[in-house]
Amino acid sequence: MTRGSSTARAAGIVTLVVAGLLGSAYVLGRSLVPDQSPRHSTGVTTSADGPHYADQPSVGEPDGAPGASASPTETGPAEAGQDGSGRDGSGRDAGGDNLFGAHVTTGTPRLALTFDDGPDPRYTPRVLAILREYDVRATFCVVGENAQNHPELVQSIVDAGHTLCNHSWAHDVGLGARSADAIRADLLRTNAAIRAAVPNAPIVWYRQPGGAWTYPVVSVARQLGMTPLHWSVDPSDWELPGASKITATVLSQAEPGSVVLLHDAGGDREGTVEALRRILPDLTARFELEALPADPT
Q: Which residues form the catalytic set?
């Protein structure tokens, strides 16, 4: 081997080593740069077909996939849970023992169906049609931005004899961790959107998104004349378990006085709509169903 070829080979090895070191340094440098992706304090993203809430999977998204549940850092329920309320990572109440006085039953032998996160032009009309078919009244916990965007659906809910419930302006799971003034502004803004659609409709119930109850949010709701409303039967339809599982959970857990939590918006609700059609024949045979009263006292 000539001296020139040995020199060229050595230079090539040095070049490869330097390139490897530079690549390692780049990767290390990138790992030290904080993630600059935006976070949504309300846990809401907007797509062409309406808002999608971060504590609910997208269509086709498997359970446990990133974004399938609202993490404490994204929506703030970890702050709300620092008061010892025992929330899990989704912002839902883990033990059900510290709801700050929120109603979990109807207080009567009657059973109440409740629908959260609407109104939604894809699913709310179908839910209303099925309820009408079985002559059932329910309670709709509406999100302020959806009420503002679809006032005609709010009017349809009221015209059909259903009860309205305030569910915050933009499904803010962390709302209870904010100041009393911020909570009051959010709830009043939601009520204003509802009343813009149906000026005379009573709004006497409030449901905290994710069930992330805190003393401040309960206190403000009561000051505004609204009774905090939780639930006693939760088939977790927001996790997209399918119509069969939603049906089985509701029918096995329903009992006199139950408040059943379902969703007519906030994500893919095909499973909920199909489950509703399956559960109503059984529920109407076993119970008297009611819309929660406009005067809960």
A: 116, 263
